[in-house]
Specification:
Beta-Lactamase, 18 helices
């Protein structure tokens, strides 16, 4: 709240004197991160390859079937159109066998040949697409133990291929083991998430991380898996793997996101309510128009100058936007009285800080807004109100708010006095540094003032 000079007002200016280089980034290095001695020292995990498309195998099947169908159709068509004499010359010596068999039987033979052709072409095409199919890593006794694990479990080699999985993994992705083992892990990850997965694998290989949330393409669509993993070297072998165990958390993530969205909506509604209350206070007193917004902006600039965390800065700005909300309990005729206040009237004005805190304490906010509002008229030397706190017993937010509030009040018009210049207001605050105001914050105000002035904008 704004206030008159000493002996006339008690608010923020009540005690002021009378006017007078060079390493390649990990994404270019591949998986070449030494772990323990002998682990991953010569192997590299590849980055996501856009050519490694999970749909290629399906295309191979379609192309093989289509080629065989066209070939068989052409053969059958040629037989239907060709005359018996030509066929007998080409395939038989007597010229009667083809006629006796009948064109229908010839077509049947052609169809059978096309089926055999598909059976030959498809494995060949699949072998080209899946250039390397790894054998299962575990032997039968080990696999029996692996199958007891109820969560999806996998072994990933240094070429980013799945060397072995348990049945829980195949069930989770909705594919058979033959369609999983030997495939690149990137085949099961949406393209837009492959780079993030690659970076996560690098950190796991370096033992910097042990878990990641990874989108996996399944028969049910893209699902989110929480994967815990670590590097592993096979016993009596030079093979290296990342062993991971995952859990489908898609539904939990969706529920959490919905809860966070609801909380954000409630938080936004709360802030809007505070803005409305602050606006109502300003409507009662036209001299306060824009005061809360200006004080909030100055508090943010001071918080930046003091290098406070962003979340703490947001809380101070919120307190500034509602710091005079308690004046709604002060009679209007006292608030705008141009003359000297009586002791009783001064006592009433001093109640606005506690009144504002009482109002704000009923609202659940993520910052100590009520405390900052309660303390924003406490002075650094202990001579302020309502509780006579001093020094660092006053919260940093309240100390910032006190400086910003007094500065804006001095440079704004009031019914009981005229506004003073910004330079003079800064000089007054500096004169009271260490008495009413924290010297560190007054110094920050001076620095902010110089930066803003040099930028050609008003503070």
């Amino acid at each position: 709240m704004s206030s008159p000079p000493e002996k006339d007002r008690i608010a923020e200016e009540s005690a002021l004197p009378p006017t007078s280089a060079g390493e390649a980034p990990p994404e270019e290095q591949g998986w070449d991160i030494p772990l323990e001695e002998g682990l991953f020292t010569s192997s590299r995990i590849p980055k996501p390859d856009p050519r490694n498309n999970p749909q290629l195998e399906m295309y191979a099947r379609v192309l093989a079937g289509l080629g065989a169908f066209l070939l068989a159709s052409a053969f059958v068509g040629w037989i239907l159109l060709a005359d018996t004499e030509t066929l007998s010359v080409l395939f038989f010596t007597g010229g009667t066998a083809i006629t006796n068999m009948g064109l229908l039987k010839v077509a049947g033979i052609a169809a059978l040949g096309s089926i055999l052709l598909v059976l030959i072409l498809h494995p060949m095409m699949r072998a080209v697409v899946r250039s390397k199919v790894a054998p299962r890593t575990l032997e039968a006794p080990q696999r029996a133990i692996l199958e007891l694990v109820p969560s999806p479990l996998f072994f990933l080699n240094t070429e980013a291929r799945l060397e072995d999985v348990n049945s829980a993994f195949t069930k989770a992705v909705g594919r058979s083991a033959n369609n999983v083992i030997g495939r690149s892990i990137y085949d099961f990850i949406p393209e837009e998430d492959q780079e993030a997965t690659y970076q996560a694998l690098l950190k796991i290989a370096a033992r910097e991380e042990e878990e990641l949330f990874c989108p996996i393409i399944t028969k049910r669509g893209t699902r989110i898996f929480h994967i815990q993993a670590e590097p592993f070297q096979g016993h009596n072998t030079d093979s290296h793997y990342i062993v991971g165990i995952g859990q489908d958390v898609t539904d939990e993530k969706a529920a959490t996101a919905d809860l966070e969205s609801r909380y954000q909506d409630m938080h936004t509604a709360t802030l809007q309510t505070l803005e409305v209350l602050a606006h109502a206070v300003e409507m009662r007193d036209p001299y306060l128009h824009g005061h809360h917004q200006r004080v909030s902006q100055l508090c943010g600039a001071l918080a930046d100058q003091l290098k406070l965390p962003a979340d703490q800065k947001a809380g101070i700005e919120m307190a500034a936007r509602a710091h005079d909300i308690g004046t709604i309990r002060i009679p209007f005729e006292i608030q705008v009285k141009p003359g000297r206040l009586s002791e009783a009237e001064v006592s009433i004005i001093e109640q606005h800080a506690q009144a504002g805190a009482d109002i704000l304490s009923r609202i659940d906010l993520p910052w100590p807004v009520a405390e900052m509002v309660q303390q924003h008229h406490e002075f650094f030397d202990g001579s302020g109100y309502p509780n006579g706190l001093k020094g660092t017993d006053i919260s940093i937010g309240a100390r910032i708010l006190a400086v910003a509030d007094a500065y804006d009040a001095l440079t704004s018009q009031r019914p009981y006095r005229a506004a003073i210049s910004r330079i003079e207001a800064l000089q007054r605050l500096m004169a009271l540094s260490g008495q009413h105001y924290d010297p560190k914050i007054v110094s920050a105000l001076s620095e902010v003032s110089q930066k803003v002035t040099s930028g050609g904008k008003a503070l």
